[in-house]
């Protein structure tokens, strides 16, 4: 998707074993050895070949820690594929119907309402998200969008529509949402900044009521054709809400693969893309 168009993504998704690999990585990152153990009928070499196809399609990001090879699902190509055929309002209604389907299927037989014990689901486990997107613009331009222009493409709001987003590009700088009169919400604090290569923040990032520690990092590297490869790493420790990892994986895919990319490449703000008002999936 990012390098050779949609054909390579469709080809990667055509194989059931590769789809099963993505299903496993959707839950959490895994080493190649851990993945191979889930395919007793395949050799380790065959599993590695499948992972190679997924990596070339940008559906899997590989991070090496010593002798271990960690494989991460990259949701951005899937999101871009989805955006090509599904408009903003269709996305909204499809999401609503999927949510209704999950709710109905979670009810006990006979349609009785869930008991309080069933409704009180345990918190999700800590998670680690890695994503990449290719943006056809030089690194300084992308870095400016991540910092100075963040309010132009960051579509999520914690308070209400019409608030102002600001990111102060310095160590200790705030990423915050301002409603005036001292009201608003804090998204994060800048920990590390090196223009135009890296930006790291920590903060709840929307998980305002969860006991979590969240660190998210953007790494910018030069790509062929005066483009920029933006790598996101988001680590969450503590007790995030159920479905938090799934929600944030999809949210990052939309933020970076649709809103940021479109703003930098085409100059369009998120409000110009025809999507309905959008709020992050946070715990209540």
Fold blueprint:
Elements: H1 7-13, H2 16-27, E1 30-31, H3 32-37, H4 44-56, E2 60-65, E3 68-73, H5 76-85, H6 88-106, H7 116-119, E4 127-135, H8 139-146, H9 150-153, E5 164-167, E6 174-180, E7 183-194, E8 198-202, E9 212-223, E10 227-238, H10 244-266
Antiparallel strand pairs: 1-3, 2-3, 4-10, 5-6, 6-7, 7-8, 8-9, 9-10
Helix pairs in contact: 1-4, 5-10
Q: Care to describe what's here?
A:
The protein has 284 residues and is an alpha+beta fold. It folds into 2 domains: 7-73, Arc Repressor Mutant, subunit A, CATH 1.10.10; 125-272, START domain (Alpha-D-Glucose-1,6-Bisphosphate, Chain A, domain 4). The protein is 37% helix and 26% strand. It has helices spanning 7-13, 16-27, 32-37, 44-56, 76-85, 88-106, 116-119, 139-146, 150-153, 244-266, and strands at 30-31, 60-65, 68-73, 127-135, 164-167, 174-180, 183-194, 198-202, 212-223, 227-238. The strands form 2 sheets. A 7-stranded antiparallel sheet has the order 4-10-9-8-7-6-5, covered by helices on one side. Strands 1-3-2 form a 3-stranded antiparallel sheet. A hairpin with a 2-residue loop joins strand 6 (174-180) and strand 7 (183-194). Helix 1 packs antiparallel against helix 4 (44-56). The two termini are 36 Å apart. 30% of the residues are buried. Residues 92-107 and 109-121 have low confidence and may be disordered.
CATH architecture of the largest domain: 2-Layer Sandwich
Helix content: 25-40%
Report the count of strand segments: 10
| End-to-end Cα distance | 36 Å
Annotated CATH homologous superfamily of the largest domain: START domain
User: Unreliable runs, pLDDT <50, ≥5 residues?
Assistant: 92-107, 109-121
> Given the structure, what is the number of helices?
10
Q: SSE order in H/E notation? A: HHEHHEEHHHEHHEEEEEEH
How much of the sequence lies in strands comes to: 25-35%
Mean pLDDT: 81
Integer count of domains: 2
Radius of gyration: 20 Å
CATH class of the largest domain: Alpha Beta
How would you sum up the major sheet? 7 strands, antiparallel
Shape: globular
Would you give the CATH topology of the largest domain?
Alpha-D-Glucose-1,6-Bisphosphate, Chain A, domain 4
The main sheet orders its strands as 4-10-9-8-7-6-5
Structural class: alpha+beta
